[in-house]
């Protein structure tokens, strides 16, 4: 059958128009950008480079940063500035905090999923959420309640791993840790039992997938310049994103409704979970702190409590498999510090007092976060023209990103062995020695430093101590490359498949 000439002409015209648009976009990229002006960061390309290098995004940024600690990628309306200079990080996160905000650029891309949550808002909304959350995280009630939940769920996790270990089955430890983290954050944060680890709540497992897919697709908006068109036409990845967001929001609204009903029935509510406390606070300003506002707050806590902990622990076990001598040294520290006959008794003895004696474990977790930060890339938007401490100018509207993933690999920050997994770098005569938060940026820094830092360390220690006490881990396939999935948080792409070998008592 002869191909119709009219169709051929039409397709050729479309391709020509696309080419013209692409060239016009490139012209706009470089027009008026002061490309050769040494007062501004050197230009390493355009933001289209992020698209072409998406699958290895953070390696790409690291390679550029090794040549230029601060550099620019040109965008249509502004420059995207990237830095690994700790002085610049301190400048935008602390010294000039009021000059740099999350900005409309980020909020436009994330509001469909996260709305007015604490991680994406500025000003009054941020201060209100920060103040309330800061108070709640400082209470002993929440600390004791959360640690109790972390221990109980760790017991379930150990028993699940034990069943798979006895059957010599391969374990996707990341999937199991995601279920553990989601069960824990929903109980601590919202007083809800999802029972994902027990497999009795298929809706909870569906929520995990929908939430992970949604965050991944939102991240893609930073790379694909056509996302607004796709959203308008409800096609492509935007159609999938809308479907996932709808499910996530419906699920969270049901959690809020159920919690309200429980609080009305329980006159002597113990108010242990975070949502209960926010609901009590919402009564003071019901117009402001409505269900939509509470939904946004919840999803921010889910992102912080599920992804960061589960992802960090996944990379932690990956690094222990690649460095078995570190794994055994941690086990030795565990055996010297914590006793217990049964799993329940052993976990009950995993306390803050025990943590204080376990400097090597803390160092190994911190070293994991240095190389595989839970949030590999973050930034702020300049609200006014500025000059960074390294001397480079920033124009109003420019986005300034600090590359935590690359910073952990910079020889000028950590030494020539920066890319090596070496917990000993954190120890001074056997005691843990912290680093500047502007150098070790895993928990951010300045006024917006992570409120849940201590909670995250406690949870990671409880889980890692429990699993390493009873199992020795190794990679199921030593030859399989382990890579990340580019998104807001650093997932292991395709899961982390391990074998768990029971340790003798």
From TrEMBL:
UniProt KW keywords: Heme, Iron, Metal-binding, Monooxygenase, Oxidoreductase
Residues annotated for heme binding in this entry: 450
Pfam families per record: p450 (PF00067)
Gene Ontology MF terms in the entry: heme binding; iron ion binding; monooxygenase activity; oxidoreductase activity, acting on paired donors, with incorporation or reduction of molecular oxygen
Cofactors demanded by this protein: heme
GO BP annotation list: coumarin biosynthetic process; lipid metabolic process
InterPro entries: Cyt_P450, Cyt_P450_CS, Cyt_P450_E_grp-I, Cyt_P450_sf
Family designation: Belongs to the cytochrome P450 family.
Protein name stated in the entry: Cytochrome P450, E-class, group I
Organism: Heracleum sosnowskyi
Source organism phylogeny: Eukaryota, Viridiplantae, Streptophyta, Embryophyta, Tracheophyta
């Amino acid at each position: 059958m002869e191909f119709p000439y009219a169709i051929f002409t039409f397709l050729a015209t479309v391709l020509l128009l696309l080419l013209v648009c692409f060239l016009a976009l490139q012209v706009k990229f470089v027009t008026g950008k002061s490309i050769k002006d040494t007062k501004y960061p050197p230009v390493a390309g355009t933001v289209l480079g992020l698209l072409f290098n998406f699958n290895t995004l953070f390696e790409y940024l690291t390679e550029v940063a090794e040549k230029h600690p601060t550099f620019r990628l040109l965008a249509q309306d502004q420059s995207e500035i990237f830095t690994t200079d700790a002085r610049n990080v301190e400048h935008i996160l602390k010294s000039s905090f009021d000059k740099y905000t999350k900005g409309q650029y980020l909020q436009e891309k994330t509001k469909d999923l996260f709305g007015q949550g604490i991680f994406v808002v500025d000003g009054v909304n941020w201060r209100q959420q920060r103040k309330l959350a800061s108070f709640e995280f400082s209470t002993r009630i929440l600390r004791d309640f959360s640690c109790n939940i972390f221990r109980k769920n760790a017991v379930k996790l150990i028993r699940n791993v034990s069943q798979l270990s006895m059957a010599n089955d391969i374990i996707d430890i990341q999937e199991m840790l995601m279920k553990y983290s989601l069960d824990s954050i929903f109980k601590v944060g919202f007083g809800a039992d999802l029972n994902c680890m027990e497999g009795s709540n298929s809706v909870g497992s569906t929520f995990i997938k929908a939430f992970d897919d949604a965050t991944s697709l939102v991240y893609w908006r930073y790379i694909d310049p056509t996302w607004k068109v796709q959203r308008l036409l409800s096609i492509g990845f935007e159609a999938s994103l809308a479907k996932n967001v709808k499910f996530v929001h419906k699920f969270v609204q049901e959690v809020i409704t159920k919690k309200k009903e429980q609080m009305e029935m329980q006159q002597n509510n113990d108010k242990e979970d975070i949502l209960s406390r926010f609901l009590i606070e919402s009564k003071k300003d019901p117009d402001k702190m409505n269900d939509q506002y509470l939904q946004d707050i919840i999803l921010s806590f889910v992102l912080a409590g599920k992804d960061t902990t589960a992802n960090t622990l996944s990379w932690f076990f990956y690094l222990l498999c690649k460095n078995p001598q570190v794994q055994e040294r941690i086990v030795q520290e565990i055996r010297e510090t914590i006793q217990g006959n049964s799993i329940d008794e052993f976990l009950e003895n995993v306390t803050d007092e025990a943590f204080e004696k376990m400097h090597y474990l803390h160092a190994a977790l911190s070293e994991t976060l240095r190389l595989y930060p839970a949030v590999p890339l973050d930034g702020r938007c300049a609200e006014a023209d500025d000059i960074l401490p390294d001397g480079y100018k920033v124009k109003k509207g420019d986005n300034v990103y600090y590359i935590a993933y690359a910073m952990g690999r910079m020889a000028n920050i950590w030494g020539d062995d920066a890319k090596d997994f070496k917990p000993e770098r954190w120890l001074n005569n056997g005691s843990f020695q912290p680093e500047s938060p502007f150098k070790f940026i895993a928990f951010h820094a300045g006024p917006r430093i992570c409120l849940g830092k201590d909670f995250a360390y406690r949870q990671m220690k409880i889980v890692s101590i429990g699993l390493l006490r009873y199992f020795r881990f190794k990679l199921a396939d030593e030859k399989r490359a382990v890579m990340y999935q580019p998104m807001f948080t650093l997932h292991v792409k395709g899961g982390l498949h391990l074998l768990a070998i029971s340790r003798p008592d």
